[in-house]
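Raw record, unedited: RNA polymerase factor sigma-54
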Amino acid sequence: MQLEVNVKQSLALKMTQEMQQSLQVLQMSAVELQASLAEKVSENPLLNIEYQDHQVDFKKIEKMALLKNHSGSATSVKHISEDYLHTKRPVSQDVEDIEKYLVEQIPSNVDLSDIEKRVLLFYINNLDESGYLDVALDTAADKFGVEIESAEKVLRLLHTFEPAGIGARSLKECLLIQMVETYSETCLPYRIVAHHLDDLAQGALKKIAVLCKVPKAEVQAAVDFIRTLKPKPLQEVASSAVEYVIPDIIVDEVGGEWVVSVNRKHIPTISINEYYAHMMKECDDETKKYLKTNLKDASILIQGLEQRDQTLYRLARLLVEVQASFFEKGLTALKPMRLKDVAELLEVHESTISRAVNSKYIQTPFGVFKLQALFAKGFLNTEGQTESTSHIKARIKEIIESEDSRKPYSDQKLAAILKEENVHISRRTVAKYREELLISNSAKRVRYS
């Protein structure tokens, strides 16, 4: 047996603690960063945190983030003032506990036995997240030893509670419950839901008109009303957390020039606690080791925050250059752009741009968008120009909005219209984009006046 020694040379990138911290901080959204900083401060005595509005020294950042002008035209970037830091975001509201809300509606004047009250509570406790009853009547009857008629009586009582449709066992029953107090069983909306719900789902209004022996215009009016009903009773009152959307980058036009900033308004200031830093000169070796470790961690964290600002700032400046038409005209003018292309222009790794884009939002004159929305896919049209999928989707939506609702365009017709505009995509691609826009097919878009 012979023993051989082979020497092989290879290159490997070793992630330092500083690099790991910087990448972690870069990947966080503003909300996640707030929570992370609060946790870091609670663990590290050498960290100070200040919860107050403050400005970032963008002159310092701009020096660190000197960017080559790749487009050949200069883009003016200035520090943004407090007046332009308006953040539009949803406001969360506390909603009463659903079970408590329903229990409080149990009428005192209704003659319910103790067993029936228990059945009612059983129903309330077995509603799914949409408000539908998630248990069969015979199951409730067997569990509490009551007749099926008694179990059904209790369910009918639950059906009188708010929100309308609560306790329904199907979509049909949910819609009928919402109409029962206002409409009779002979009215057209009630009849359509009770007997032609499948046809309604298919948009077969002509068929419904024939079966119900009424004009198509009456069917259209009835369908319009049915669509105002709630298919999920709890969809508007269910208690749910609302995620705040805080833009990480703000782009605004001031005096004819684009103003770009990294939004630090909602992120607290982190600094070194000088008292503990000075203690290292006088404390024992064990304490000194502990403080040194924490000082290093604090310094790395602060460095990571500065690196995050630098990367987002450089990215924002480049976006204003590359996607100038988007900032002037909106999504319809968005150009195709890849993470790889941006990474090459900024001379960083593609994964760095991916982390910078992750869970980030940008505020523009046209609203707040996910940063990922600016990285659009695309392809060449017949004139050799690149069209983005976002632009094509926006155009499809525009065409459909301007169509004659009595004769909606088919997907084939939409493809033909786009072809006339030098955009060649198949009918299947049009259908795919239309569905992604949550727009129904032509059969379901038709209206009868």
